[in-house]
Design goal:
The chain is of the alpha/beta class. It is 28% helix and 25% strand. The structure holds inosinic acid.
């Protein structure tokens, strides 16, 4: 594929360079055929508007500071990527990967760190960026773990919050949307590692 693209650009250089940028393709429309998708819960325009609001709030709250925004992989990757670009501050970011769900829609209650931070937290203003606050088990574990590493402050930004599912008392400082107790996919959220690339947030069909 690589070789083909290089050759195309050389052989058809003029055409290649003058080609207009492609329009973003409407992935959702095609995936609507998929029998595991029920309906869109939050469309991409609404998500982006809300993410920009959260970015503006963080920009206001952290004036004069340089926060570290840590995405919890893989689910928060897309939210994190959009959020950091809505923040008008000097800041840095890092990633952690944890395992809390297998190939089902039920929480195992167990959290294992698969990839740890590269940066030290000593004296840092940490913002944990998570896709969804569900039972709270994952964030509860992470907060305890990260607090012991000496950050100056820890705040939590979640795109989605399912208050009705909470098992432990974890509160997020920035919340995109409160949602009902449905299993959702898209915009980074998966079911069995699929659907993360959907631009909208969908409800998974019950029994999928
Ligand atoms: P908690 O530990 O139960 O709060 O769950 C947190 C993790 O569970 C999230 O980071 C997600 O990876 C996953 N999760 C919870 N609810 C959903 C959902 O509706 N769709 C996809 N993943 C979910």
């Amino acid at each position: 594929m690589q070789i083909f693209l290089v050759r195309e650009s050389v052989l058809c250089g003029k055409h290649f360079l003058s080609r207009k940028p492609r329009q973003e393709e409407p992935v959702s429309a095609n995936r609507q055929q998929n029998h595991n998708l029920d309906r869109i819960l939050i469309d991409s325009a609404t998500i982006h508007a809300r993410v920009r609001e959260i970015g503006a709030a963080i920009t206001r709250d952290y004036q004069g500071k340089s926060p570290l925004l840590v995405a919890i992989l893989k689910g928060a990757s897309i939210f994190h990527a959009d959020l950091v670009r809505s923040i008008d501050l000097q800041m840095s970011f890092d990633f952690m990967a944890v395992e809390s769900y297998g190939a089902s829609t039920q929480s195992s209650g167990e959290v294992r760190i698969l990839k740890d931070l590269d940066e030290s937290l000593d004296g840092r203003d940490l913002i944990l960026v998570e896709d969804i606050l569900d039972t709270g088990l994952t964030l509860n574990y992470l907060i305890q773990n990260l607090r012991s590493r000496g950050p100056r402050s820890i705040k939590i930004a979640v795109l989605l919050n399912k208050p009705s599912r909470r098992i432990v008392d974890v509160r997020a400082d920035y919340v995109g949307f409160d949602i009902p107790d449905d299993f959702v996919i898209g915009y980074g959220l998966d079911y069995d590692q699929h659907y993360r690339n959907l631009p909208d947030i969908w409800i998974l069909k019950p029994g999928a």
